[in-house]
């Protein structure tokens, strides 16, 4: 599978460095190594969900209990979670560190991914959610740390878009 | 039974525990019985009270968490039952007040919870039955979903003199204090 293990490891180590102790995830090709790393880590609570909406509630609960979490989702999962992002995270000022695999963007060959790819950034901007793109392995640790710092300072969700360049080895 | 009677019957069990409720009648009725800093009322995001309770239960194993859900809310997040059943935290009690008023469901959540693999389930129709079932569930240290049949009657007023952000920060402070206590 041409998903980059090296860069998945970089991302996972960066999340550990951010003191993330809970990760929610729904299986998705680009995230498969990250999910396995979380599963194999005895110090990580991995919550495999049925739908991304649940992840917003789980992370809200973890935050109110004083634990930092991260959400792994595909951009179509972000689309599925928009209502709870608005009516829980934004309403109650809950920080969310959302790592979103950016399908349907430049280089996409699958027609069915493209519509979601086209609307992802406009929708994030409409919600006022700050966006970091992860494309360069050298930026991973710094950008994830800075994204989490802003989320906690602003008590607001942030989106880190995982690009094809980083995640996929053609 | 009336939901208000049901809540009154289990209030002593709720008082010291971490409680997450859904919006509307459940929140207003619990608030009227007596607000506590360890009570969080999720005033929107229907269906996610159980997900929030799961998030808290998984990271605060020293505490017992009670989620007060409704049949309508549960139907908006049915996937939560399979997620609860996968992780089955023994410190989580999930009570579903079923007034069959959004959909005529007649016991459907019980069947669903059992089929999803929730290890303990119960169906109760009176305050005494609910209290007994809640006591048993809390003593069992096993994830339990209780479906409590209630009439589709709400409080006269939904007013709560508690802005939602005040509730949010007060609840987080209380949980923080308990974590510090457990750590020390």
Provide a concise account of the structure shown.
Chain A is of the alpha/beta class and 170 residues long.
CATH class of chain A equals Alpha Beta
> What is the radius of gyration of chain A?
15 Å
Our measurement of the CA-to-CA distance between the termini of chain B, rounded to an integer number of angstroms, reads 43 Å
Order of helices and strands of chain B: HEHEHEHHEHEHEH
Number of domains of chain A: 1
- Give the fraction of residues assigned to helices of chain A: 40-55%
Could you list the spans of chain A in which at least 5 consecutive residues all have pLDDT below 50?
none
> Unreliable runs of chain B, pLDDT <50, ≥5 residues?
103-107
Please identify, by name, the CATH architecture of chain B.
Answer: 3-Layer(aba) Sandwich
**Mean of pLDDT of chain B:** 91
Largest β-sheet summary of chain B: 6 strands, parallel
Strand order of the largest sheet of chain A: 2-1-3-4-6-5
Protein structure class of chain A: alpha/beta
Beta-strand residue percentage of chain B: 15-25%
Q: Radius of gyration of chain B over alpha carbons?
A: 15 Å
Oligomer: heterodimer
CATH H-tier superfamily of chain B: Thiamin diphosphate (ThDP)-binding fold, Pyr/PP domains
Examine the coordinates and then state which fold CATH places here, giving the name of the CATH topology of chain B.
Answer: Rossmann fold
User: What is the β-strand count of chain B?
Assistant: 6
């Amino acid at each position: 599978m041409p998903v980059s293990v090296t860069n998945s490891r970089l991302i996972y180590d960066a999340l550990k460095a951010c003191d993330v102790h809970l990760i929610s995830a729904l299986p998705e090709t680009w995230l498969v190594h990250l999910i396995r790393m979380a599963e194999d880590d005895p110090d990580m609570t991995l919550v495999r969900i049925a739908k991304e909406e649940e992840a917003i509630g789980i992370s809200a609960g973890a935050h109110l209990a004083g634990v930092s979490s991260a959400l792994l989702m595909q951009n179509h999962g972000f689309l599925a979670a928009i209502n709870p992002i608005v009516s829980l995270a934004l309403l109650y000022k809950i920080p969310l560190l959302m790592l979103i695999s950016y399908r349907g963007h430049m280089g996409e060959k699958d027609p069915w991914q493209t519509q979601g790819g086209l609307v992802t950034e406009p929708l994030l901007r409409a919600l006022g959610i700050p966006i970091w793109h992860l494309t360069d392995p050298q930026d991973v640790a710094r950008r994830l740390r800075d994204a989490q710092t802003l989320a906690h300072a602003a008590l607001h969700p942030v989106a880190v878009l995982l690009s094809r360049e980083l995640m996929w080895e053609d | 039974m009336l939901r208000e009677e049901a809540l009154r019957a289990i209030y002593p069990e709720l008082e010291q525990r971490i409680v997450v409720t859904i919006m509307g009648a459940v929140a207003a009725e619990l608030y009227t019985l007596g607000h506590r800093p360890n009570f969080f009322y999720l005033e929107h995001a229907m269906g996610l009270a159980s997900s929030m309770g799961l998030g808290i239960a998984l990271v605060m194993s020293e505490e017992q968490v009670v989620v007060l859900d409704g049949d309508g809310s549960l139907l908006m997040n049915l996937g939560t039952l399979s997620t609860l059943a996968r992780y089955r935290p023994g410190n989580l009690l999930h009570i579903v007040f079923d007034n069959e008023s959004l959909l005529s469901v007649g016991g459907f959540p019980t069947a669903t919870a059992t089929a999803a693999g929730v290890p303990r389930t119960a169906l109760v129709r009176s305050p005494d039955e609910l209290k007994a079932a809640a006591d048993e569930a809390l003593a069992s240290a096993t994830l339990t979903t209780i479906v409590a049949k209630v009439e589709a009657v709400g409080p006269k007023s939904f007013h709560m003199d508690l802005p939602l952000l005040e509730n949010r920060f007060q609840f987080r402070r209380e949980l923080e204090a308990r974590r510090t206590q457990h750590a020390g």
